[in-house]
Design brief:
Layout (H helix, E strand, L loop, with lengths): L1 H6 L5 H31 L7 H18 L2 H7 L4 H21 L9 E6 L3 E6 H28 L1
Antiparallel strand pairs: 1-2
Helix pairs in contact: 2-3, 3-6, 5-6
Length: about 160
């Protein structure tokens, strides 16, 4: 493939070959890191982890794709507005404790219930999970937005 690229006049044949390997590896590592991020998020209520660490790992996985590709390709792969994700994350993280405060309970008092999910059966649902979801979304989107803005400033 390198020879074909050089014959057609591409001077950056070595760089293009390295990009192919980096891009393939980045996709594979992205899946592993994002799954581990979700694992840390869901395990965080009972063990170390949670929204903050899970959000940082999710941002790291997306930053890996940003390094392997470019900003336009990342926006096509993950078509989300980071500012909207930050806003929704802050709404969860701040709104949930405030909502419990308005119902007469102390500020960070969490509630829980059990719901029936067809495949999983009886599942406990805590309001702390929704708070952690807000932290997860806020941290992941903020870290990604900072990296993208710093990258744009250098260009």
């Amino acid at each position: 493939m390198k020879q074909t690229l050089k014959k057609t006049g591409h001077d950056k044949a070595d760089r293009q070959m390295n990009d192919v390997f980096l891009q393939f590896t980045a996709k594979l590592v992205f899946l592993i890191v994002i799954m581990f991020s979700f694992n840390l998020f869901f395990a965080g209520h009972y063990t170390p982890g949670g929204g903050f660490v899970g959000g940082l790992l999710a941002a790291a996985a997306l930053i890996l794709l940003l390094i392997a590709y470019d900003k336009k390709t990342l926006q096509r792969m993950v078509p989300i507005d980071f500012r909207l994700i930050i806003t929704s994350g802050l709404t969860f993280a701040v709104g949930l404790p405030t909502l419990s405060f308005f119902f007469g309970t102390p500020f960070f008092t969490h509630q829980h219930t059990h719901i029936e999910i067809p495949v999983f059966g009886d599942v406990a649902l805590h309001s702390a999970v929704l708070f952690d979801l807000g932290v997860f979304l806020t941290v992941a989107a903020t870290a990604l937005l900072i990296i993208v803005l710093v990258g744009e400033a250098e260009n």
